[in-house]
Amino acid sequence: MEVSTVSEFISDKCFHFTHFLVEDELQASQLVFDVLQSFLIESPSALSRVESTGFRNDFYSRIYKLAKTRRDHFKMSESVDLSGRAAFFLVYEHRLSIGEVAKITTTPEDQVLLKVVHARSQILKDNNNVEKFRTSL
Question: How far apart are CA 38 and CA 55, in angstroms?
Answer without folding.
Answer: 13
